[in-house]
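User: Can you write out an input/output pair for a complex, sequences first and structure second?

Assistant: Here is one pair. Inputs:
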Amino acid sequence: MKWHRIWAVTRTDLRQLIKSRDYWLPMGLLAILFFVVIPIVALNAVTSVQNSQVAQQIGTVLDTLPVTIQENIQGETAGVRAAYAIAVYLLAPIAIVVPLTIAAAVGSNTIVGERERGTGEFLAHSPITEKELYAGKLLAALIPGYLATLTGFGVYSLLVNLIVGPDLGGWFFPTSGWWVLILWVVPPAIAIALSLIVRISARVQSAAAAQQAASLVSLPVIVISYAVASGLVYDPARTGLLTGLVAWTIAYIGLASGSRALRREILLGIGIKAKKRVKVPRG
Amino acid sequence: MPEPAITFSRVGRRFGTIQAVQDLDLSIHAGAVAVLLGPNGAGKTTTVRLATGALQADQGTIKILGMDPRVDGNAIRRISGVVPPKAAFYDRLSGRENLRFAAELWELGDAAPIDEAADRFGIGHALEQEVGGYSTGMRTRLALARAILHDPTILLLDEPTAGLDPESARAVLDLIRDMAGQGRTIVMCTHLLHEAEGIADQVVLMNEGHAWVAGHPDRLAEQYWRDNRVYFDAQDRAVLQELSDLAGVESAVFNGFVTVELDSLDRLPDIVAHLVAQGARLTRVEPVQPTLEQLYFEMQRHRRREVPA
């Protein structure tokens, strides 16, 4: 595999994405919603709770968490403790939802988009290998999602520290669990989803069908990741590292088999749903 | 005789229940311009795709400059330029960005002759524009520039002039002549017969996945064209009046010059000698040559006689 050819594919896809405002604008808004709007509303609401009855109710909810977690929750008042719990534990899954949603949107169009435009024919006659093309497409789908997550994570960290930090005596975020989540678990989670989505993109007839199928496939991955993300920030040392290891293993298997599934004929639109419909060249 | 650059031996390719190419035998010499003629569905596009290894053959052997597309596909694609029937690009990118992408795939580096290739086809002025705003002709010109960017040894053009304005179509034909002059091997698929006129060293008539007949147009004309008509003209046309009475002349049509139908072209030397002896100063004695289109339909008629439906 030649890295510069992989990067040429990635860069070409990213250039198109950047020039498609109607495509990246909703993704940006999604990231802002999850990393900025929801945290600001939730944390401000909790930290500004004055009503002792509401604070007591929040305290009751926190009491249902495992003892080890309760011991880690910082803060003197029920409101501050609740804000800490929301910032550190309850909003962790957004780090998974945002990149997976963006990656699914970009990834679903990768191969089928080439076919629909007709550029698949050009690629099929070019000297790029199937593995290089697969890797290039994968990166093009992974980078926007992960970049949005890293940026969002930075903004989120800033917001959390600004809103909750003063009540806790200074900057406390990101915690070790979040570092593990962002750097160790999110990348393979995106890769797992993409290994399925790019494969779908290679097999379906149209971009619209790819979007639909990608949504169906990425939903369970998001749900599982959501649950895992919630759990691993409670126990980053063991659960987080182990989860990441499993995710990397699954991602490797998924990507390896996915790269083998991409063939030149697919770029030409041949062999798509072969049992039902066969596309025959006109000439 | 030069070595074949492209050889297909009993090549077959099936799509589901449809046999797109069957027992295809083809031999195109290095430096030749071969024109694949045939109706839609004849197997022309599949042949091009098989040649670069974009498609794999189910059976048979293909050799491109001695290389097997199944084994050396990437090496073949590195030396091949393809102009597909649909000039497809990344529409949101500029012409330059599209050519740059092709240059990167062919590993041409920063020295890729993007401007030269674009200028050659008169598209240099639009290189910074998004391709989405290009006309059909401009897209085809850009596709031609992309196909020759890496200076290919083999050029494969699949219906390159479909839907083009006359100027753009001429640019395609000029490219073919130009590349042929440089010794490149060129394969053009078309069903527009007049385009192949005068540029084809080799005509391959394809039908239902077979190369039914192949050869130089002149030799095919000798083989299939049974037209014994001859055009005559002279400085003093009155002397041509007696053509009607000569032995072997079946008809003579006077329309300024004279179109004479003979029972055999072997009569021609005697007729010329007779006219000269009568003092005729002949300015034209020209057996009627078929256009490629006439030849194509004549060959099709032969095929139908040989292979009844």
